Amino acid sequence: MMEVMEGGSYVAEGVKERIAMRSELPEPAREITDRRLEVARLICSGYTDVETADSLHISKSTVDIHRAEIYRSLNVRNSVELLLTALYIGLVKPEELYFRPKAYELKPRPKKQWRENDNKSNKR
After folding, report:
1. 17, 51, 106, 123: which could form a disulfide with 47 (CB 3.0–4.6 Å)?
2. How far is Cα 9 from Cα 66, in angstroms, rounded to an integer?
3. Spatial separation of the C-alpha atoms in residues 84 and 15, rounded to whole Å
4. Full domain range(s) for residue 43
5. Would residue 16 count as lying in a domain?
6. Closest CA to 72 of 61, 87, 82
7. CATH code at position 87
C-alpha cells in the first residue's frame, strides 16, 4: 500500500502472474481429435460457425462445442490466438488455409437505378 501512497499503482500478485502468462505463447494442454482438427482448420481459414457446420454436415451447436474444446485444449481465448498457436505448433500449415468458403461467390454491387423523383430533387 505504501506504493500507492507514494503515487505508484497497485497490481495484485495474481493479476501480475496472469499478465506474465499471457506474454508467453500458450502451450497445448492435450491432443485434439481428427474431427476437432478439421473444425480448427476451418476456423483458422475464417469460416463462420454456420459455414463450418455446413461443410462438415454437423449442427452449429456441435461446432460450438468443438470450438470450446479446441480453445480449452490449446489454451487459447479466440480465433486469432487459435490461428497463431495452430501455425506455431504446426497443427495447421499456411498452405492448408483458404480464406473463403468453397461456395463463396463474389458478386458485384448492383448499379443504382435512379427514379424520376430522385432526379427532380437533385436539380433543386
Report:
1. 51
2. 41
3. 24
4. 33-98
5. no
6. 82
7. 1.10.10.10
Query: What is the pTM for the complete model shown?
Result: 0.59
Please give the single-letter amino acid code of residue 47.
Answer: Y
Q: Which three cell numbers stand for residue 82?
A: 487459435
- Label residue 37 exposed, middle or buried (CB < 10 Å: 0-12, 13-18, 19+): middle
On whether residue 121 sits in a domain, the answer given is: no
- CA angle, residues 84, 90, 91, in degrees to nearest 5: 80
Helix ranges (DSSP H) in 24-112? 34-44, 49-56, 60-74, 79-88
Q: 86-105, pLDDT tens digit by residue? A: 888 888 888 888 766 556 66
Q: Do 90 and 32 form a contact (C-beta atoms < 8 A)? A: no
d(CA 13, CA 11): 6
Of the candidates 103, 89, 91, the one whose C-alpha atom is nearest the C-alpha of residue 43 is: 91
Report yes or no: 89 and 76 within 8 Å, Cβ to Cβ: no
